[in-house]
Design brief:
Layout (H helix, E strand, L loop, with lengths): L37 E5 L15 E5 L5 H7 L28 E14 L2 E14 L3 E5 L6 H8 L7 E6 L2 E2 L5 H10 L1 E4 L11 H6 L11 H14 L15 H13 L5 E5 L7 H18 L2 E6 L2 H6 L2 E6 L2 E7 L11 E3 L6
Parallel strand pairs: 5-10, 5-11, 8-9, 9-10
Antiparallel strand pairs: 1-2, 3-4, 3-6, 6-7, 11-12, 12-13
């Protein structure tokens, strides 16, 4: 083993302490080397947890002589040029410099393969993209392009075949089942295409239900006020006591939106939220979600082929056959300018 810095010498008598006194067959102590061949490690005083200074001492031991060229390699590297890493030694790019601190959702080289009998269906083929906090993002493409698969991965409903999914800087594959459950409850909201309301509960109870799960400590009075506020926001004040079979498709979708927002999640995913609605109701639902995005700063991610949603989105990702063919920001974004445009031709499957 070699140390990386030549240090001060020691007294020749110190070398004898390294001989094995308990073994009469042990070889005699080596001849003390020259002073320049000895190295010393010094330990500086350090603060202990109780605030007392720990022992300070010197450990001395001999090392074999090293060639001059080896000593050069052990010398510490010169400091970088003032003002940065320097032109000859650029700093490596970190995750934070690539946008992880700004990105609330990040997918890196994600693939997803489903077995189908004797064949394999490649739903996603190396998907990489970032979604920033507060985005009103649209993931669009024809049926079978991978929209729902991406939403299921972001929503921790499914897992990748390979690649990484980050939610607010945390890679989801490293989380335990318990932490995944907490993430889904506290950070993520999901608006399902088929609504998935609980039929035996009324509007108020369906929206309140997520607040009764997990470790919620919200007092009943505050919980009731918040649920009523959501009901008013989605325009269902007159139907708060009605059950789902007494509501129209648009009203059920409004309940689903309010329920997704009940825990004040950072991210809400919506899978074809307007697919089962007429044009007038669809427009009202889109306006409602845009209002929530603006007022609550909630990040919305849509899996859709609805051109009206794509038109007002500030971040558009287009898929075809499990691959990204377009990824760009629009003038609807918070900075008022198109920030990036990444277009690629469809590669060989």
């Amino acid at each position: 083993m070699r140390l990386r810095a030549p240090l001060a010498g020691v007294e020749p008598g110190d070398v004898s302490r390294f001989a094995r006194r308990d073994n009469p067959q042990a070889p005699p102590a080596p001849t003390p080397p020259a002073e320049g061949d000895l190295h010393t490690i010094s330990t500086k005083p350090r603060e202990t947890p109780k605030g007392r200074k720990a022992h300070s001492g010197v450990c001395r031991f001999p090392l074999l002589p090293l060639p001059a060229e080896d000593l050069e390699t052990l010398s510490p590297a010169p400091p970088p040029e003032t003002g940065g890493a320097g032109a000859d030694h650029p700093a490596p790019e970190s995750r934070t410099s690539r946008g992880t601190t700004m990105s609330i959702v990040r997918l890196v080289d994600v693939t997803k393969t489903y077995p189908l009998g004797a064949t394999q269906v490649h739903a996603l083929k190396g998907i990489t993209f970032d979604i920033e906090k507060g985005d009103f993002a649209s993931i669009s493409g024809p049926s079978g392009s991978g929209k729902s698969t991406i939403l299921n991965l972001i929503g921790c409903i499914d897992t990748t075949t390979s690649g990484e999914v980050y939610i607010d800087g945390v890679e989801t594959s490293t989380l335990s089942d318990k932490k995944i459950t907490r993430l889904r409850h506290d950070v993520l909201g999901f608006i399902f295409q088929s609504f998935n309301l609980i039929p035996v509960l009324n509007v108020f109870e369906n929206i309140e239900f997520p607040l009764l799960l997990g470790r919620s400590t919200l007092p009943k009075r505050e919980r009731t006020e918040w649920v009523n506020h959501l009901i008013d926001d989605v325009g269902l004040s007159q139907w708060r006591s009605h059950k789902s079979n007494e509501l129209s498709g648009g009203q059920r979708q409004r309940v689903a939106i309010a329920r997704a927002l009940a825990t004040k999640p950072s991210i809400v995913m919506a899978d074809e939220p307007t697919a089962n609605l007429d044009s007038e109701t669809s427009e009202a639902i889109i306006d409602l979600m845009k209002k929530m995005n603006r007022e609550l700063k909630t990040t919305f991610i849509f899996g859709t082929h609805d051109p009206d949603i794509v038109k007002i989105a500030d971040h558009v990702i287009r898929l075809r056959d499990g691959e990204i063919v377009e990824d760009y920001r629009t003038a609807n974004g918070s900075n008022g300018a198109r920030e990036r445009a990444l277009q690629a031709q469809r590669g060989p499957s």
